[in-house]
Amino acid sequence: MGEVLLVLAVFAACAVESVEALTIVLAVGLTRGWRSAVQGTLVALVVLGALVAALGPALRVVPLDALRLVVGGLLLVFGLGWLRKAILRASGLKALHDEDAIFARERAAAAAANSRSRASVPDWYAFTLSFKGVLLEGLEVVFIVLTFGANQGHIDLAVIGAAAAVVSVAAAGFAVRGPLARVPENTLKFGVGVMLTGFGLFWGAEGAGAHWPGNDAALPVVLVCVLAGALGAVAALRSDQPERERIAA
Predict the structure, then answer these.
(1) Could you report the per-residue pLDDT of 197-221, keeping only the tens digit for each?
(2) Which of 12, 136, 159, 198 could form a disulfide with 223 if both were Cys (CB 3.0 to 4.6 A apart)?
(3) Closest Cα partner for 192 from 17, 4, 3, 38?
(4) Is Transmembrane among the key words of this record (predicted)?
(5) Count of structural domains, the chain
(6) How far apart are CA 197 and CA 4, in angstroms?
């Protein structure tokens, strides 16, 4: 069960980050040409792959309890940040993430930028923007792969989940030649926030010396409790909005 949830959590989280990186690369490629955009993307992927290859073995020598405590704390902070934004979006207090609007904004900026070449890169702006977009979103993917994989002793499974997400999103994006606006990204972010928070609580408690009833079998229960709490927060915020509107009026 733990290994299945590991792959699913990594896949979902990496899919969200891949959609955001794909939006940038597509906007640049469709507006300014694909050669430099692909070059920037490939260089960023090489850098990210090198980070996983370098840091993955190093994390294996860290004592398991210490690793789980640190990883659990980091995932809890990271996951609560995602979950907070997802709750605000679901309750209507924050605008939904709109890939179409982001795509249009990136295309407009790409069309307005000047073009210049450097070395073997014909369009340095397209190269740089694609490189930065993939690298910044990819760093979160690397964080997820390393923390999930090292903590469970299965970096290979985490890499498989991340690779499957990246390939699936890239194939879908280049097939439709546009942003994946139909992907329920806001729902995915809500689910990923729940999973990261749940895993953080579970591993952090284990690292601190706690023992869960049933060991890994308790993880789904923790995730359900986090989900119930998040949905309860959404319901409470939604019910409170009419009162706020009356006060504001």
Answers:
(1) 988 888 888 888 888 888 778 888 9
(2) 198
(3) 17
(4) yes
(5) 1
(6) 17
